[in-house]
Structure formats: C-alpha cells, structure tokens
Amino acid sequence: MHSLTAFSEPVLRWGGDPSGGAPYVYADPANPQTYTGFDYEFAEALAREMHLKAEFVPTDWESIVASLQRKEFDVIIDGFEPTEDRAREVLFSKPYYLFRLQLTVKRTDNLITSLEDCRKHQKTVGTLVNCAASRLLDQGGYKSKAYQDPVGAYQDLELGRVDAVLMDVAGEMFYARQNPKLKAVGKPFQTGAYIVGIRKADTLLLGRVNAAIDTLVNNGTVERIFRKWQLWDEEQIKLRTTKEPVFEMTNTKLNWSEGLIKLLKAASVTVLLAFGAMIIAVILGIPLAVGQSNGGPLTRALCTVYIEFFRGTPVLVQLLFLYFGLPVIGITLPGWLTAIVGLGLNYAAYESQVYRTAFQAIPERQWQVAYSLGMHPLLAFRRIIFPQAFRIALPPMTNDFVALFKDTSTAFAIAVWELATAYRELANATQSYLGIGLVVCCYYLAMSLPLAHYAHKLEQKLQRKSTGILSSGADK
C-alpha cells in the first residue's frame, strides 16, 4: 500500500540545504529569520497548486536523500538532479527547470577560453560536490577541486587557489556575473534538469506533484519565478513542448578498484595533515606550558588567553577564519597548509595542558638537584625534567594524536580533499554509504591502530628505563 503521509495533514514538507543554497534557498538578508530563493518560491507555488501549505525543513545537502527516507520531510526541492544512483532510492518528478553549465575564470586570464583549455593546460577547476559539473569533470579526467558551497569556489578563484570554476548558470549568475574580478568564458553548455525527489513508496504523491508542475509550467508561474531571478532562457520552452523527460540521467555506478585507490590517496592526505599539525602542536605546546606555569605575569596572561581561545572556539570556525579571513590582510595560504596550521594551533592549546600537568608531576627537588650539579635551567630541563615529563605525557599525547586523525575531517569546510571528504564525495555520488563507509573506517583504523600500538610499546620501554629494569631482566 502506498504511503499517504503527505496527505495526512494539509502540509507539504520539503527539504533543502540553506547553508550553501543561494540562489536556490537561503536566509533572506533583509529578514534573516525567513528564507528566499527561486526553489523556495517554486516550492511555495507547488504546494499552493496542490492545495497544501509549504513547510520548509532545513537539512544538510550530503544527507538529504537519507533524510527523505527517514521521513523528515516529504519531497526534496533544492536544485536536485536526477542520477542513476538516486533513481535507486527515490522517484523523480518531471523537470521544472533546465539548467546549463557555465565556466568562469579571472578577468585577467586570457589563457582559458573553454573547458578543454583547462584539460590542455592542466588547470584546476572548482565546482560543487556531487553535481552535474563534478561528474563531468571526473569523467573527463580534469583536475578538479570540490566545494561544499559556491561561495568558497568563487572566492578561491579570485584568490588564485583554483584556475576556473564550473557551475550551474544559477550559481554563476548569483555569485560571479556581477563580480568585476571574474568573467564567464564560452557559452553555457550541457543541459541538465532540476526535479522534485520523492520516496519510492509515495507514487500517489508523485502523480500530484507532476500534475502541479504541468500546471505551473503551462500557466506561466514557473516562467514568472525564473524571470524574477534572471534565470529564464529559451531552454525552458522545452518544458512545454515535450511530455517526456528532456534530460539524461548520469551514470554514477562505483568502480570499486578506482574508488579504493581514490580513498587511499585521500588517506595519504589525512596522514600529511595529522602529522604536520601534530608537529606544530608539540613544538608550540611546550613553550605554552612552560610560559603558563613559570613565566612572568604578562607571559602567563598571554599563554592563558591563547589556550582558552583555541580550546573555547570550534576548530571548524578557526579553519574558516584562517582560510577566508587571512586573505583580507594579504595572507593567502593553500587549503592543505591552512588545515595543518589551523589544526596545529588548535591542538597546541590542548597539548600545552598535557605538558603542564606532566611538568608539575616532577618533584621540585629535582630542579634543585640539577642546579647543585652546576646545570643551568635549560640544561636541567633538557636532561632531567623533560625526559621524565615525556613519559608521563606520552599516553594522553597518543590519544590526542588519534583524535587529530579524526579531526582532519573538518578540513572539508575549506575544500581540502582528505579521507572524510573523499567518503562524502563517493557516498553521495553512489548512495553506497554502508560499503564505502566500512572501507573508510578500515582506513582510519589502519592509520591509528599501529600508532597506538607503537606508542604503547614506547611507553613500556620508557617505563622500564625509568625503573632501572633491563629488558632482559624484565623477561625473566
């Protein structure tokens, strides 16, 4: 029996992601408590035509299909494109808008005149994750960089972090067309469609949605909405002149051998981020710990402010600040370096507290003994205090390092392609969340378990040395 959930009350609940949704659906700058966008207006018109009240349910784009399946809302309306993997999970309505792709470069760039030039000159093209443009770039063998929202892509184009951006005309119109630093090259190409996504069981709802779309297309409501947003073009006439879908679904079946290789490459980036950030955290954490414990009043205050700031604010916000904020003052770092520095600065605050506790665990008399032997403070610290404190600090350091491996996933927000980002891309493109997720978990375990095992062995070795027991004697 088909589900009639959508008709149990006079409400059509529709899901969309407002965090990166302009001009689809986003918070209205004039009234941030409400939303606007062409998809928002279309959803309102669709619900009215169905004699229902539209209710917007904000959700995350990457889990939007799963949220639909969990019945958090009734339909998906958010620039939703038909693909083969999605066809296995949801029903597709008739298209209500036909989009094309547009390539954008910096206004000073005279080398790139077409997408083919990007492949010819090995230029990096930015685009959104899991969209028609990203699939085109992947299948064509282009160098690409995926973003969670259009803002980051076009900002990176301005800053020279990517050489071009390929996006739907809707995104290009809203974010790039009026930007004097950017320009569109070539004409829009490759037609795709935006459709309404509906649960497989809701076939009756699909029929009502399709009937409402036909009415909105034929009575001019769709044209009025998209003309308002400056998105109407001659391509939309096809919606009236044909009864069959005017788009082709993209084949997104996962090639597991290539997928595993892609995840392995992403895992290597995760290792680079984790080790690079931990080196910074260790090097910076020691002077922070010493300064907070034994420094003068000003030094203690500065160290405390640093530690509380980085422990009291989310690492994701810190990464976004470094990535998008520093260019305002002329400092532009690549994404991977921003992630290493940001995570390193954040974890330095936590490591400093580990070291401070370890230093305080060393009896004060050991400093006095070192001084009586003629050692100056730095030598006493290096030869007497630090080796003992290191043995105490090693277990929590290991825990922090394992946690750092997982926190590298926050780098997705600044378009760093690491293991968690690769998982999102592949899982969203294929809807194979379980299979790919298990593989990714195995990759994380393969990186963290040997580290934990080695740290445990090192801890035992240092403990034996500290008690004066030789390894051979310990085995007897």
From TrEMBL:
Signal peptide: none
Gene Ontology BP annotations: amino acid transport
Cellular component GO terms held in the UniProt record: ATP-binding cassette (ABC) transporter complex
Domain ABC transmembrane type-1, residue spans: 267-455
GO molecular function, one term: transmembrane transporter activity
Protein localization: Cell inner membrane; Cell membrane
Topology in the lipid bilayer: Multi-pass membrane protein
NCBIfam families the UniProt entry points to: HEQRo_perm_3TM
Protein name as catalogued: Amino acid ABC transporter, permease protein, 3-TM region, His/Glu/Gln/Arg/opine
Organism: Chlorobium ferrooxidans DSM 13031
